[in-house]
Amino acid sequence: MPELPEVETVCRGLQENIIGKKIVKSWLSEKNLRFPYPENFINKLKNRYIVQISRRARYILIHMDNQEILLIHLGMTGKLNFYQNYDNHKIKHDHIIIRFSDNSALIYNDVRRFGFADILHISEQADHKMLKDLALEPLSEDFNVQYLQKKLAGKKMNIKNIMMDNKIVVGVGNIYINESLFLSRISPKKSANEVKKEELDMLIKNIKNILQKAINKGGSTLRDYQNLDGDVGNFQFDFRVYGREDKNCVDCKTKIQRIRQNGRSSFFCPSCQR
């Protein structure tokens, strides 16, 4: 599943390629995505200009000139492809095609169709069912040790899974929390309420640094992810623990272990992370 760095990379590509463009025509496949398309989806897009691109957690927000927003979530295998000169070709798993007045096009492709698209007015953003309960962004200044201490007080769940809870902080997915915990020397099995203040401070710094480095490298490509131009990310070459089960720790040569926590794989060094 694309995580925050991958979605941020896509948003930056959209900012470079579709701001100011006019939508002249759209097309939908016969298959629904995770949710049905909103009523009059195609008509709501027609003749609208793109004025802004933003991101909230893993959601892409394409702002139009009538104060409406095209909200897109990539799900597990969703991709946005941009074509400078579109020749009307469709490939398997193309589900949304948006044509612009200069003959360029934005296409949403999704093999498993777990992503979705919605249209909402900007006044509805705060109360939208997918956005209203989201916590702080991890790269924001408000995501600090004082905030996290309050959120984790009395919580006995393991620190790894609780940091993936969007009601604690958004967008810290499985890859990046594994990497951040390793750099912070914190075991993913440790209870959240047992993590000391100085450890939380280090964890926050490492989350911010890891996410920013991943953004700078275009995210991580494990299977399906690619950016708007069809290029893959490169941060996977910097992984220290994720996906490295039974390989030597980069710091102490102990074998990296893999366990399952709440259905997700956790990778850690049993020597470095206690």
Fold and architecture overview:
With 274 residues, this protein is an alpha+beta fold. The chain folds into two domains: 124 residues, MutM-like, N-terminal (N-terminal domain of MutM-like DNA repair proteins, Alpha-Beta Barrel); 124 residues, Helicase, Ruva Protein, domain 3. Helix content is 23%, strand content 22%. The strands form three sheets. It has a four-stranded antiparallel β-sheet. It has a four-stranded antiparallel β-sheet with strand order 2-3-4-8. The chain has a two-stranded antiparallel sheet with strand order 9-10. Helix 1 packs parallel to helix 6 and helix 5 packs across helix 6. The relative contact order is 0.14.
Query: From the coordinates shown, what is the CATH architecture of the largest domain?
Result: Alpha-Beta Barrel
The first-level CATH class name of the largest domain: Alpha Beta
Fraction of residues in H or I helices: 10-25%
User: What is the radius of gyration?
Assistant: 20 Å
User: Number of folding domains?
Assistant: 2
What is the count of β-strands?
10
- Structural class comes to alpha+beta
Strand content: 15-25%
* End-to-end C-alpha gap: 28 Å
Strand order within the widest beta sheet: 1-6-7-5
CATH superfamily of the largest domain: MutM-like, N-terminal
Mean pLDDT: 94
Can I get a quick summary?
This protein has helices spanning 4-17, 41-45, 145-152, 159-162, 174-184, 197-216; strands at residues 23-28, 50-56, 59-64, 68-73, 78-83, 94-100, 105-110, 116-121, 257-261, 264-268.
